[in-house]
């Protein structure tokens, strides 16, 4: 079993901060699921409150990211790994950014009750599933990051599972867009575009998680070689 902590003892301080960053990202992304549920129920107050919470956590994650980058810049690492860790931290932050962007799409404009009813009947179940699976995809990524210190081989395998989960979410996104297209003529142009943007924004969270898993795979590969 290869442990990254053994290979890079100087990285322990940064690793602790990265674990904290992962907790923040998890907290932000997990709010997407109850926000989606609130949206489908027409609970706009909770939609806004969840968006505000996600934005707050994302700002805190940004501050922590900058501190981690400073820590990494000052630390002593094996050649190549410092840059890879920088990329990992940046890609993790992009997951939080995408979660914030997705959450904002919903609260910027209240959809009429009739249009919401049509959307719920046509796309409600699939949207709930998508929100849930986006959260699971990101949680899988964060699990892989934590495993870097404990078991690099397992971290490598988890990173590849993230890619598989993202591919399944791509398929679900297409189904949702097709279902939305079927009711397009019953929605205002603005509502249709807002709902389409929300679906694509949710998918972007998973896309960013998949990109972060690529960096994770690279780090694990170097650690095992």
Brief sketch in words of this structure:
This protein is an all-alpha fold and 225 residues long.
What would you note in describing this structure?
The chain has a single domain (7-224), classed as Methane Monooxygenase Hydroxylase, Chain G, domain 1 (Up-down Bundle). Helix content is 85%, strand content 0%. The protein has 8 helices and no strands. It is elongated, with a radius of gyration of 19 Å.
Task: Name a few traits of the molecule.
225 residues, mainly alpha, Methane Monooxygenase Hydroxylase, Chain G, domain 1, 8 helices, elongated
SSE map:
Blueprint (H helix, E strand, L loop, with lengths): L3 H4 L4 H19 L1 H9 L3 H31 L6 H27 L5 H35 L4 H31 L6 H36 L1
Helix pairs in contact: 2-4, 2-5, 2-6, 3-4, 3-6, 4-5, 5-8, 6-7, 6-8, 7-8
């Amino acid at each position: 079993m290869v442990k990254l902590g053994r290979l890079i003892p100087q990285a322990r301080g940064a690793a602790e901060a990265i674990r904290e960053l992962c907790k923040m990202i998890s907290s932000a992304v997990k709010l997407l699921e109850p926000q989606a549920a609130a949206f489908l129920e027409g609970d706009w107050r909770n939609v806004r409150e969840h968006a505000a919470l996600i934005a707050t956590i994302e700002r805190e994650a940004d501050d922590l990211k900058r501190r981690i980058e400073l820590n990494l810049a000052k630390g002593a690492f094996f050649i190549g790994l410092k840059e890879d860790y920088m990329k990992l931290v940046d890609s993790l932050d992009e997951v939080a950014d995408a979660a914030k962007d997705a959450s904002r799409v919903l609260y910027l404009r209240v959809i009429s009750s009739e249009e919401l009813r049509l959307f719920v009947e046509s796309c409600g179940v699939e949207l709930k599933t998508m929100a849930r699976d986006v959260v699971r995809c990101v949680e899988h990524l964060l699990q892989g990051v934590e495993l870097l210190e404990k078991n690099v081989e397992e971290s490598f395998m988890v990173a590849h599972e993230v890619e598989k989960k993202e591919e399944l979410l791509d398929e679900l996104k297409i189904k949702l867009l097709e279902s939305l297209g079927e009711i397009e003529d019953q929605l205002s142009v603005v509502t249709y575009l807002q709902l389409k943007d929300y679906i694509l924004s949710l998918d972007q969270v998973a896309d960013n998680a998949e990109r972060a898993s690529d960096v994770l795979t690279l780090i694990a590969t170097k650690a095992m070689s």
